[in-house]
Write a sequence for this structure.
């Protein structure tokens, strides 16, 4: 027995090492809410460097875009002026809609909006792998953040915080494969689960008979306990109904542009 | 000991590049995984205990910057290192072409192992449909990055001396001899 162990000690050691790492992974999967000491140390150590890298790149790209790369600037300026005129007209319409919305909300006592304190944060890094969808923001436990808090952008939901360090946090985007958000189609109130699929979302568990059309708006239902009700997730891009089966296949384009995220808001605490 | 900290320094530097610089400059599919190149290099060049220790730490660092749980890249990178170790006895590690081939195979194996671990251990949903379409682009990005690093190291080799232990280069490592 001892000879056998001696002869194959490297093999045994290798297998033991591999099993240990898999056990570590399995253990951490169960403790998903917690940030480990190792992760906190790495994030704490690298946060200032990430912020410096981000700042330096912003300066370089800013200099390049503003002073060097000015091709088509005049045409772009004309386009923007035209767009500006259109937006001004739209803004007047929006003001009218806002007043109308206010009246309706008072009338129906329909509280379907975010009413929480929010903390702005800057995106200082993205996921280091090609498959996971996470970002790093420059606020952490020192700013009052904790795991599970929802993160939004002006366009819609971004994700939720999964790891926190004193001065930085990691946010799991709604497009990550391990993200699932309770959702409903705004027009018909059809319920489902918005699950990440890389760069897009799918609406799972939407009944085959439910009325869902392309371009319908998908919002959070508030059922999961993480995201408040009524936040925009995206728009329906494709609907497929098989002849059989309980559910329809619904593809959703996220509202937020995750490739150009720079600033986000972390929603703190409970609804006021 | 100096080599150990040098690997860790490069690990941190590469992961910062991957998380803060590449997202600004490169489209999502074409961001190279520089840590994989370091792991493969470790498998070819370093002694076993140091290679294992550095790989575990680099895997942990990569886990801290990607995905949701610590341990995924620790396991996957360790498995890749062991595979390279098994093969390295039969390979001519001085050949740059072989190193590139190894990086292509490493990219493939890493994606498959990540997919396997996420499918078997984590409730991560359908991961393979995300990983597989991105694989060709990842392959190209890693090969280009490795070629660039090799070219860069070849240029710098005279500065370090020919016995500084660079896999893929002539007179490369203490382990493989000169």
């Amino acid at each position: 027995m001892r000879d056998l162990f001696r002869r194959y000690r490297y093999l045994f050691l290798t297998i033991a090492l591999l099993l240990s790492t898999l056990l570590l992974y399995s253990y951490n999967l169960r403790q998903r809410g917690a940030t480990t000491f190792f992760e906190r140390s790495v994030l704490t150590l690298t946060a200032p460097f990430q912020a410096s890298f981000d700042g330096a790149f912003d300066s370089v790209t800013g200099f390049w875009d503003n002073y060097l790369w000015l091709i088509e600037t005049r045409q772009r300026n004309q386009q923007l002026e035209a767009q500006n005129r259109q937006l001004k007209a739209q803004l007047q319409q929006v003001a009218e809609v806002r007043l109308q919305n206010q009246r309706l909300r008072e009338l129906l006592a329909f509280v379907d909006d975010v009413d929480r304190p929010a903390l702005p944060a800057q995106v200082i890094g993205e996921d280091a792998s090609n498959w996971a969808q996470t970002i790093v923001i420059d606020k952490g436990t020192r700013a009052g953040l904790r795991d599970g808090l929802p993160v939004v952008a002006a366009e819609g939901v971004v994700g939720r915080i999964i790891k926190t360090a004193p001065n930085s946090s990691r946010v799991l985007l709604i497009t990550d494969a391990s993200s699932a958000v309770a959702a409903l189609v705004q027009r018909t109130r059809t319920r489902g689960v918005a699950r990440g699929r890389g760069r897009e979302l799918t609406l799972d568990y939407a009944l085959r008979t439910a009325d869902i059309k392309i371009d319908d708006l998908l919002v959070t239902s508030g059922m999961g306990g993480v995201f408040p009700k009524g936040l925009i997730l995206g728009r329906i891009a494709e609907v497929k109904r098989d002849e059989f089966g309980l559910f329809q296949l619904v593809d959703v384009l996220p509202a937020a542009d995750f490739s150009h995220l720079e600033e986000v808001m972390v929603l703190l605490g409970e609804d006021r | 000991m100096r080599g150990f900290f040098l690997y860790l320094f490069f690990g941190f530097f590469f992961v910062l590049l991957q998380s803060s610089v590449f997202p600004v400059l490169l489209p999502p599919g074409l961001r190279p995984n520089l840590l994989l190149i370091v792991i493969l290099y470790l498998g070819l060049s370093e002694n076993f205990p140091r290679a294992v220790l550095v790989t575990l730490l680099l895997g942990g660092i990569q886990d801290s910057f990607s995905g949701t749980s610590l341990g995924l890249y620790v396991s996957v990178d360790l498995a890749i290192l062991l595979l390279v170790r098994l093969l390295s006895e039969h390979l001519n590690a001085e050949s740059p072409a072989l190193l590139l081939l190894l990086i292509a195979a490493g990219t493939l194996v890493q994606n498959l192992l990540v997919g396997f671990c996420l499918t078997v251990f984590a409730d991560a949903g359908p991961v393979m449909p995300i990983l597989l379409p991105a694989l060709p682009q990842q392959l190209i990005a890693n090969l280009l990055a490795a070629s660039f690093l090799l070219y860069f190291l070849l240029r710098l080799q005279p500065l370090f001396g020919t016995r500084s232990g660079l896999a893929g280069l002539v007179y490369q490592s203490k382990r493989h001899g000169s």
